[in-house]
Amino acid sequence: MSRQFFFTFVTLFCYNRASQFTLKQARGGVMEPLKIPQISKRITDLKTENAFVVGVETAAYEKETGKKVMKFYIGQPDFLTPQNIQLAAIKATVEGKHGYTPSAGIPELRTAVAKYLSDTRGLSYEMTDIAVAGGAKPFIGYAIQCVTEYGKGHEVLCPNPGFPIYESFSFLSGATPKPLMLYEKNKYNFDIDDLGRQMNKNTRLLILNSPHNPTGGVLSLEELKAIAEIVKKWPDVWIFSDEVYSRITNGNEFHSIASLPEMQDRTIILEGASKTYAMTGWRIGYAANRRLAKHFGTLITNTDSCANHMAQIATVEALTGSQEVPEKMARIFHERRDVIVKLLNEIPGVTCLLPGGAFYAYPNVTEACKIVGAKNSEEFRIKLLREAFVSVTADTHFGPQVPNDGEHIRFSFAASMDDIVEGMRRMKEWIQGYKK
Fold first, then answer.
1. Is the pTM here over 0.85, yes or no?
2. Is 219 in a helix, a strand, or coil?
3. Which of 12, 95, 157, 398 makes a 20 to 30 Å CA pair with 53?
């Protein structure tokens, strides 16, 4: 036996014996599997954004059946990013602008955001009041982490239904998410008196989203004033104002609570390039608050280091260049809104309010569920996909169902007009088939 063969044999023998001992433990002559370390409960219980889950489901069903599905499940504009923005990114790439940047963002973009928010909100922001991140979503977590203490019972008031990441980031950060119910009878706004009742010594953050996802509701100036008066009674409460749809208002006037007296310094404004400029995949979001901007920068250093360099330069062009294309896109969304709401209201068992902003319709399908034999909105959504090849999200994808408010689904009309018309035709014929 050669020396090399001998050492190979001994090594493999010892490895095999060690592996057996590692994989199994002897106890009374019985071999038991090795216990694997556990994953934290806050991760295993963490919820997600179901629009992406529905997207995977839709793609799989489309591949399985070979039939095109009309897709209304996600808020992604069907437009290309405006050409001037694309060219700015190409120029930046060619010029070598693809390295690390300051964590809070390049000065040019922070300055452009400060001017944009100052001009559109009637406020005064400086570059140092702004932070830029890889999308708007991270700032939800950053804000919650900045104003709540882990494990101290601090509460975050979230609109319900609402963007699901408000709740999941609250939970992940050790805060307690508390739902503010949005009722159809209130045009999907919460009851101001209910807000007053929900406020307590543990409340640290109130999240507002206007125009609203998923309902398209818009808070009026009078409602914002009433909210501000309640918040002023609680000196420890911050406001997180998610305003990413501020430029998509379907002809309505947009108001920010930060513009009201005494509200700017305690309001965190969230904005981003994704919706207004059809830049979802570029992942650029920005937040404004004089006291918290530097802390946002520290959190970005600890997480992503910085946002994409070329995308930041492209967003400077988005904010400072021609606004002709984004304004045209907003007008088209308005036209689509009118068409989809009209067609939805012509479908048996479906009623739909006219959304004031964003690009979502949120029809009530309580009666339609009964017609097709669906026990709830989620079962209705699945049947709609599998039988009519129309993909949407359900109200339960945006938080616990609002008591006594019926069943709802969400349509994103960030799809083409042709797809909207075809999707509504399919849904109508599908429900009519059950009626027959």
1. yes
2. coil
3. 157
Gap between the Cα atoms of 239 and 245, Å rounded: 17
Please state the length of the chain. 436
pLDDT, one tens digit per residue, over 200-248 is 999 999 999 999 999 999 999 999 999 999 999 999 999 999 999 999 9
Q: Which residue has the tokens 């616990």?
A: 400
Structure tokens at 250: 């379907």
CB 363 within 8 A of CB 392: no
CA atoms of 204 and 222, how far apart (whole Å): 23
Sort strands 409-412 and 393-394 into parallel, antiparallel or unpaired: antiparallel
Where residue 19 falls among pLDDT bands split at 50, 70, 90?
Answer: very low
**Parallel, antiparallel or unpaired: strands 238-242 and 130-133:** unpaired
Distance CA(354)–CA(368), nearest Å, equals 19
368 and 275 inside one domain: no
Residue ranges of E strands in 210-276: 238-242, 267-272
CA torsion 39-41-45-46 (nearest 10°) is -80
Residue 386 domain-assigned (yes or no): yes
For residue 250, give the nearest of 339, 350, 164 by alpha carbon.
Answer: 339
Same domain, 413 and 296: no
Same domain, 73 and 89: no
Residues 19 and 21: their CA atoms lie apart, in Å, by 5
Rg (CA), the chain: 25
